[in-house]
Structure formats: C-alpha cells, structure tokens
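Treating backbone geometry as a discrete language has practical consequences that deserve illustration. Part of our work consisted of pairing the sequence of a single chain with a tokenised description of its backbone. What the numbers capture is local backbone geometry rather than side-chain detail. For completeness, the protein is quoted in full, as a sequence line and a line of structure tokens:
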Amino acid sequence: MKRKLLGLLLIIAAIAGVVYLVNNSGGGERENSHILPSDTTTVATSKPIVRIYMENSGSMNGYVTTNSQFKNALGHLITKAYGFYPGTQLNFINQDIYHTPLCDELDDFVLNLNPTSMKVGNTSSTDINKIFKMILDRTQGDTISVLVSDCMYDVDNVGNLLSAAASSTTGTFMRAISRAHDAKQEFGVIIMQCMSEFSGNYYEGNTAISCNGQRPYYIIAMGGLKQLMHFNDYMELENTSTGLPGMAHKYMLSSETTWTLDNNTVRTYIRDFTNAKKIQLEDNRLDIRKITTDHDKPNLTFAVAMGVSHLFADKTYLLDKDNYSVEPAQFSIQQISDDVTFAEYDVFDHPYALRLTTDIQHFAPQVTIRLLNKIPAWVKKCSYTERTGTLPPENQSYAIYEMIEGIYNAFYNSIEGKNKDLCRFSIRINGYE
C-alpha cells in the first residue's frame, strides 16, 4: 500500500513539474528582431461589429443619380465588411437612425440606391453634430461605426455659430474618448476625403446650385483603437487599385500614441544615405560614437531608419516634412522616403528613411526629431467658409476644417502634455573628426 501511495505521489510531482516548465518557458526561443516594444499597440484578436451609417439628406442625392465613384466606394465598403465582419449592419441616418429592408439586401443595395430609395425619414435637413452624437452613443466595446456623409455644417456664417458648432463637435468626441477610457480602451478615428461624380443640386445653406462634376464626400470610421487598426488593415483603406475607390486624403487620430523609442522603432544608418566617410554607432544602434566627415563636403548628411508600421498615422502625413520639428536649428530634414530597400536593418517591415543634413562647420552634440501632432495641410486646402452663392472648387467642402478641428481638439486635449507628439527621439553624437 505504501509503495502504491509513494508511486502515486511521484507521478503527481512529475506532472506538476512539467506544467511548471511549460508555463514558465515563454514558448521557446524567439527572434529578438520580431518582438514588438512592450507598449506597442497590436491588432485585436476578435473581429469587431461594423455598423455603417449613410447620411440620406437631400444634399446627398447628387452622388447616387449615376453609377458614380460614390456607389463604387460604398459597394466596396459594404461587401468587404459584410464578408469578413459578422453582424455588419447598414443604416440610413438623418435626424434619426433607420434600418430599412433595403439595407438587409446588401448585395442589391448599391444597385437600387437612388434619390427615391433614399427618402427614408426626415431628409430635408441634418445636423452633423447630432449625427455624430447618435453614432458615438452606439459606438462602444467591439463596435466600429462608419459614417458616409458630405459632412456639411448647417450654419449660416463663420462667426459665433460656426465656432459653437466646432465646440459641440469637440464635446461629443471628448465624451466618446472618456467612455472608452472608462472601459480601459483607447479611441480612434479615421477621416477619409473621397471624390465622386455628382449630378444634382449642391446646397449652400438654403440655396440650391446645380452641379454636374466632381464633389468631395467623407467616410469617417470611429471606434476602439485596436479594433480600428484591424479594420484599417483588413479593409485596405488606401488609394490603391484594391483599396477605397476615389479616396483623395486620409487623416488618423487616436487618444494614445502607438510608437515608442527602442531598437525596434528607430536606428541610424551607417552605410546608406550619408556622405560621411565613416559612422560608428553606440550599442543602442541609434546614438553615434563617432562620425568621420569628408571635409571636402560643405554639409554632413546621414539618415535614420524609422519603423512605423504600428504608428497610427497615414503615409502622406509621415512623408510631409512640415509635420516634423528638428532641434537645434543647425539640423534640417533633407528628405523622407518610404521606398528604400536595404539589408542593413531587416527588423523593420516597411521602414521610412529620414535624411538629415547639417552645416559641417557647426556641429551639435545632439539632434532631436519630433513628429508633431497637427491637422494635416490638406484639410485647410479643402475647406472654405465664404458663401458666395456659386459652386465652390470641386475639392472643397464648407467649413470642413472647422469640423475636423473640432474632432482634433477632442483628441489633442485628451493626451498628456509629454505625449502630444506622435513620436520623438534624440540622437547623441559623441565625436566628430
């Protein structure tokens, strides 16, 4: 009996030992080059629920009178989401939300979409801030909400009324960010300006202006940051042959930066994009131990590789030199490239080369690069506020800058001061010769 009991105890001890080793082994060896920073945001493990809201006020009729780019983009959005995300829904939205039988037949929805089929609910006028509130109140947990609209502020002038509308937008999005934080989530928004054929009346306030040409509209995706990153990747929200038809511009905002400084996010090049004779790096592969310069050159140029695949920012934003700050003033950004091919740092999936230059006669021991958190330049270029009773330029929308500024302020005000930059890093240069 004692022998049987002893044998049983030995078996139990052996099993416990195996379980301990499995739980503490870390899953075996891992390649360091593929380990993401500890606080880098990764995609969600579960698929979100996608709810698409199409504004159906009278100002949207001109997009659906023909087989337009608008219809192509909406069809792409609906069918691709419906085929991958369970529970995808489509609704009309104006002064309320309407789930119609037409929306249940997603395969035929775009084919049957016309000004008559869009007459659901009160389509005489809409309030974009009320639309945002209705949608964001329903955007919680694993929900991605997508608004398709011309995003027209229904106000008469650029004075107090427009400022009040922008402040209302800020408040609405701040509440959504706060709700996400209460649920231990970060919140994000993707704003896409798309172009489409338009045949119908363009409305400037109560004035109808006949239009047959190109007009912009907007697709705005909102939800938890992890879910939104997953949605952005899967849906290919880019201006490509397999992406979103007619997309002209894109702007991405989040309540948390998703980039952190370490060897997996930024490193200094030693062989490419430099006119130095030699660059010796410190162990962190970012700081420079010594640069051997070519004194026949008036300027020193070198570059850093930035791994930005997990940064919640659009490619066009990353390539715009005006979105960066470089200190001290002796340094400046010469060029930003994303089409580089090299074998030096294969740790990056898709690196950006940030090329720096400085006067060879005025060295500084450190250079600091910041990717600023600012409204991209295209938003201002695509906005107008002077109502003249004539058709505005085809790429411009009334007060779109003020509307997007309202959304931007909600996110910018929710981020702690030290984290307001999208990313920041410094390179110490410890010796020149």
The radius of gyration is 26 Å.
